[in-house]
Amino acid sequence: MRTLTYLAATALAAGVALLAVMPSESSPAAPASARPQDAQQAILAAFDRYDVVAGASPNDIFLDLIRNPAFPGRADVIAVECGNSLYQPLLDRYIAGQDVPLAEVRQVWRNTTQPSCGFSVFYERLFPLVREVNKSLPPASWSGG
Description:
Blueprint: E1 5-10, E2 20-23, H1 39-49, E3 50-54, H2 60-67, H3 71-74, E4 77-83, H4 88-95, H5 102-105, H6 107-110, H7 115-119, H8 122-136
Parallel strand pairs: 1-4
Antiparallel strand pairs: 2-3
């Protein structure tokens, strides 16, 4: 099983990197006869074909995807652009399950150059979910950041 690492990158634009895809050198072009698919299954399948799977406009589809039991086996890193990297060590300890209050972790998305991040309720739900998922992983699969 892959190690899950979650990063709060310096705020450049609000979003969670999960949905749009960038092909790797070995991946084939998208088929001309693309058909609608289950979103979670399509995103999970994208991890098999692409080196980077990314997206913007954080919403519940990302939370549902992270809850999917197959997700930790497909994704190594979640990069959050709506955060302050100054607090990365604090966030790492929190998502690793250490005794860090969520009230302290809120600085990650509230003390940024992007005011809209501080008003978002998405991050208030994202990081506790990541913490919960990491706690459910076998100890050998989590490196703690």
